[in-house]
Amino acid sequence: MPVQQTQDRIILIHPKGSSAEILLYGATVISWKSPSVTSPEIKERFFVSGKAVLDGSKPVRGGIPVVFPAFGPPTHPDHAKLPQHGFARSEVWSLDSTVMDNDAGVSVRLALLSNANIRSKFDKPFELHYVVTLAEHQISTDLHVKNTGLSTTGALEFQALFHNYIRAPANEVAITPLQGLSYYDKTEASEELKARPKSETRAAVDVRTSTDSVYENAPGTYHVTWPGDGVEIRTKGLKDVVVWNPQEAAGSKIGDMEPGGWERYVCVEPGYVRGFIKLNAGDSWTGQQVITAIGGSPATSRV
Ligand SMILES: O=P(O)(O)OC[C@H]1O[C@H](O)[C@H](O)[C@@H](O)[C@@H]1O
């Protein structure tokens, strides 16, 4: 069966050999094994820390945690009681339906409705649906947000982001095209410096030093390449992108990071995180990413 469900996860299997696993906890995609466009070798494309906790007691350190309704420490008054990155990554979602199951793609839809635990910290009426689609060389994720309130309950204001942990030799990755964009450097020491925009001068961004950069109004399509392999991330509705790798100094302080884990991934996280999306009662919004295993090309196979 191309869509399998166990007690804690959903497994998608594509007829051409790719597969994906989605934990119901957080709707966290924790594995994507895929050939690339240029090589038939099936490889794991996401990093999950060997110390990641998968039992639903804390967000997963790896894969694709879903960040909603706040990115980072909350800054909006409606989010004041929420933890860093909101609640979507630490709630149990349910399998809603199989959307598609054929050679073009294997796709499921998960749902998260409000519950007593969420309401105690965030009392806005909302509904989340998350569609994960596996194709031969591709995985895509679509987050659908609806304000289910009445006109009297007011607007739903939120941020959203896909926190992709791309498995890659961190010190060799190049991320393009970010040159010329303005970004906020969260590694700066003071709040004042963190809030001051910088301008990206590099044609290809690397993460050889500790990096935590929030690029705003970014082009929406990114290439993350390293010698011999790479991925392309195409997005819709997600105007910003975050690039994060803590390197050793900060990475070794993360409790659920495996030793040296920061050398094995780069987070390239498309999102809407500068400002807020505002939905009036009854309105909906969708953010989408399509990640393609593009493999190595002469341009990426630097020896
Ligand atoms: O440790 P977490 O809450 O999962 O956050 C991990 C990281 O997420 C994002 O990339 C932020 O920009 C970083 O500042 C943060 O450290």
Protein described:
It is globular, with a radius of gyration of 19 Å. The longest helix has 5 residues, at 247-251. Strands 6, 11, 12, 14, 15, 16, 19 and 20 form an eight-stranded antiparallel beta sheet that branches. It has an eight-stranded antiparallel beta sheet with strand order 7-8-9-10-21-18-17-13, with no helix packed on it. The chain has one domain: Beta-galactosidase, Chain A, domain 5 (Distorted Sandwich), CATH 2.70.98.10. The chain has helices at residues 116-119, 191-194, 247-251, and strands spanning 3-5, 9-13, 19-23, 28-34, 43-44, 66-67, 94-102, 105-113, 127-134, 138-146, 156-162, 165-167, 174-176, 182-185, 198-199, 211-215, 221-226, 229-236, 240-245, 265-279, 284-293. It is mostly beta strands. A hairpin with a 4-residue loop joins strand 3 and strand 4. Helix content is 4%, strand content 42%. The model has no long low-confidence stretch (mean pLDDT 96). Bound molecules: 6-O-phosphono-alpha-D-glucopyranose (G6P). This is Galactose mutarotase-like protein.
